[in-house]
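Reopening this ticket.

The earlier resolution said the output was attached, but the attachment link was broken on my side. Pasting everything inline this time so it's all in one place.
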Amino acid sequence: MLGIGKKATPIIGVDIGSSTIKVAQFREDKSGLSLVNFGVVPTPEGAILDSKIAKADVISEALGSLLSLHSFVGRRVSASVSGQLVTVKQITIDEIPRQPLGDIVKWEIEKHISYPIDEAVMDYQVLSRSQTEDGGVKANCLVAVAPLEIVNALVDVLRRTQLEAVFIEVEPFAELRLVDYVSYKRPDLDAKTVVLVNIGSNITSINVADQSMIRLTRMLPFGGARISQSIASGLGIGTERADELKQEVVNVHPDAGLETGSEAERATSSALPVIDELVLEIRRSLNYYTTRFESDRPLHLILSGGTANLKGIAEYIELSTGFTVEMNRLLLDVAKYDPSMFTESYLNEMAPMFSVATGLSLREFEEKAARKRVKGHQAKPVDAGESLLTYRPGSEGL
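Inline output:
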């Protein structure tokens, strides 16, 4: 417990993925935010299975070592849940007099999940209301729901590491917060519908955000591990060596000009069919979005996740889809950093991997960021946090 007069330490963003654990922290002074530190360690093998924490003690040990190694300040953390069992969805419901809206939302969202709603953590936000011809009211709601088992397992890991779980969020909202936070520096993003594509090791999330609101989210059973497996199969080599080639020589840039028959060309050729599957799913998702939601704002893709650093992937997706694409290097727009600790090239390389951890760590700074946007007369909601659904340990909402 904090003593009287003591200031709370800044929140540490913790992103526990199936292949890596990422942590980021910022602090604030009169001149703005500065990067305290960020770090990454491999997730211990077998510690996460099917997006579920299987070995809490092993993950806790790895996370604790990471925090100690990089000298993070304090014990207050914000973490995220993700995976195919986590659902973020817009629903439209009929409000019923004298019936709690939360109960109606539960009945409707249960149709879209594969587990009982009483075994889930759920929260919702009313986006708009409209009058029906017969005098009734329809409510358009954004709902986030996750299995209670997954949330409790994450909280257990943090407690084992002697950390205070201040917030638990679903992953898309953490990434959206990062985009919102830097939007006063990037007014071009305000005029676009942002598509956040996070390519992880086993899961790729596609989240469409329009005017600071998640409109569509999809989780695909696809990631960097599939690419490595395809390279290993195509070249007849082990997965470890295939991982090395994926990171070092695979280049899917349309103008890469790889030498025919070279190891780089053969590895790239083996990787391309899998990447084409991803491109197809992105196009399907965006075709559905443009059909389902009426918007004349241009689509702009932002790539994040460890696999986003694959050489030429941004250019390949841009050419294949016809939409503009950039890498999620927004970490560099968030705060100052000590050049004696981090080089710009290193931050550029690591930033896509830390988009979720960065967004989580910004949870308590977003109100001031919103005021900056208002000062700049940008047409955005005053409080970017109003649209973000958050679980506080001990509560029932997510």
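Reporter confirms the inline version is readable. Residues 214 and 288 are 15 Å apart (CA to CA). The domain at 187-329 is CATH 3.30.420.40 (Nucleotidyltransferase; domain 5).
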